[in-house]
Specification:
Layout: H1 2-16, H2 19-48, E1 51-57, E2 72-76, H3 81-92, E3 95-99, E4 113-115, H4 122-143, H5 148-154, E5 162-163, E6 169-170, H6 172-209, H7 212-217, H8 222-259, H9 263-273, H10 275-280, H11 283-298, H12 301-329, H13 337-359, H14 364-371, H15 376-383, H16 390-418, H17 428-436
Parallel strand pairs: 1-2, 1-3
Antiparallel strand pairs: 3-4, 5-6
Helix pairs in contact: 1-8, 6-8, 6-12, 6-13, 6-15, 8-12, 9-11, 12-15, 12-16, 13-15, 14-15, 16-17
Length: about 425
């Protein structure tokens, strides 16, 4: 037992004192936030780009739909004809909308074309199609001698407030937050398993190729060495997560203190920090932030944090055992390629299944993959923000523990034989023989 503690301690400090670990721990949250802000900024800049689009309306019925908006300006080239309009559009406009003559309103939607040098974006085509559909609809209503303005006045928007039977309310914003939090937790588990599992494999390969392993094995059992490496890296991963969690908790406390007050006092708090910012903060935006804070408070935060730690440990221990066995079976990292795909397939499937889980978190596919041990660390974490019965979580955890014990037993048998095997590329048939030794 003392030897196992020494191995765990050695692996833990070797990982934690590494410069890359320190840099990754500090910079990763900043890089993620920066990347999100960059994406938002680029999308905003892209949406602010004004596109000039020409149109030729030979039907002379839909000219009124081509009104300028914030990101689109329209130019009428109907008088020039389609041939001349094409020549002018190539060098001066984003594209050209052509509406041919039509004998009736029913055929007006047929034959509409869009000409451009480059392939247009889907969003651009959708906006133009929406304008045309709305214009043709209004013309058909007018043909029926019905007042279009009265019909438009009858349009009503309905905002549904969802509430469970225990009285807890939620909204669309809450559903979006659950999707984002579930996706983020699942993706974090995916990245942690790959990063730290690969770290265990590389450590085993390094010690094996340098022949240090032969000295270590003389005083330590192979199973103790493998388990020590796995647990040492696991503790390093938990330390990294705890640092991030504390940082997030401090940030959450500041945000709650600033925005968790009445709108007037919140604006005053912001103004005390930055007077110029206070001029741009309206009561509606403060209210939106308070709504977000309320929705986050409604999430099962304790269950999510506890489940994240448990599923990280369970998933990591399973896959790191497999990674350790692979590292012991090969002589170099290039020889691991034939074994990596079967290991990564369940994780990749779990990420793809996660998209359907977010859409239908209580469906049979979501429940099945959240119980299956090789995918449950990712899929279950994506489901938990939406509310999962306790019995499903307990069954999933139990299956994860049983699977870990079984895989560690198989991995230890491969590790014991492969760690001292040199000069031979093992096949799946060879690994099967090692299991029977």
């Amino acid at each position: 037992m003392n030897k196992l503690k020494l191995i765990v301690k050695r692996e833990f400090f070797a990982k934690v004192k590494n410069k890359s670990f320190i840099i990754l721990t500090i910079l990763s949250p900043l890089l993620m936030v920066g990347l999100m802000l960059l994406i938002v900024f680029l999308n905003k800049q892209n949406s602010q780009e004004i596109k000039s689009i020409a149109y030729v309306d030979e039907s002379v019925l839909l000219t009124s739909v081509f009104t300028d908006s914030e990101n689109m300006k329209f130019v009428n080239l109907t008088d020039l004809g389609i041939s001349e309009a094409k020549n002018i559009t190539k060098d001066n406009y984003e594209g050209l909308v052509y509406i041919p003559k039509s004998e009736s309103l029913n055929s007006l939607s047929e034959g509409v074309e869009y000409f451009s040098v480059d392939a247009p974006s889907i969003n651009l085509l959708n906006q133009i199609e929406y304008r045309l559909e709305k214009g043709i609809r209004d013309l058909k209503i007018a043909e029926l001698q019905v007042d279009v303005d009265k019909i438009k006045g009858a349009d009503t928007k309905v905002f549904i407030i969802s509430e469970n039977f225990s009285g807890e309310k939620s909204s669309k914003m809450g559903s979006v937050l659950r999707m984002l939090v579930g996706g983020a937790f699942g993706y974090l588990i995916f990245m942690f398993i790959i990063i730290y599992g690969t770290s265990v494999m590389r450590s085993v390969i390094e010690e094996k190729t340098s022949r240090i392993i032969e000295v270590i094995i003389s005083s330590v059992k192979p199973f103790q060495l493998m388990l020590g490496k796995i647990l040492g890296n696991a503790l390093a991963g938990i330390l990294q997560f705890v640092i991030w969690a504390i940082s997030l908790l401090l940030l959450w406390s500041v945000i709650t203190f600033v925005f968790g007050q009445e709108p007037a006092s919140s604006s005053a708090a912001i103004g005390s920090l930055n007077p110029e910012m206070a001029q741009h903060v309206e009561g509606s935006s403060i209210s939106d932030i308070q709504t977000i804070l309320a929705e986050i408070s409604n999430l099962p935060l304790f269950t999510m944090i506890f489940s994240f730690i448990f599923y990280f440990l369970g998933g990591y221990l399973i896959y790191s055992s497999i990674y350790a066995a692979i590292g012991a079976a090969v002589d170099s990292e290039t020889d691991t390629q034939q074994f990596m795909m079967p290991v990564l397939m369940p994780l990749i499937i779990a990420i793809y299944v996660g998209f359907s889980v977010i859409e239908n978190p209580h469906g049979p596919i979501a429940i099945g993959f959240s119980l299956f041990p090789l995918t449950s660390p990712i899929v279950m974490l994506m489901r938990i923000p939406f509310g999962v019965p306790w019995w499903q979580i307990i069954v999933s955890m139990f299956l994860l523990i049983v699977t870990f014990l079984a895989i560690v037993w198989f991995a230890a048998k491969i590790y014991r034989v492969g760690i001292l095997m040199y000069g031979k590329k093992p096949s799946y048939k060879e690994l099967y023989k090692w299991l029977k030794y």
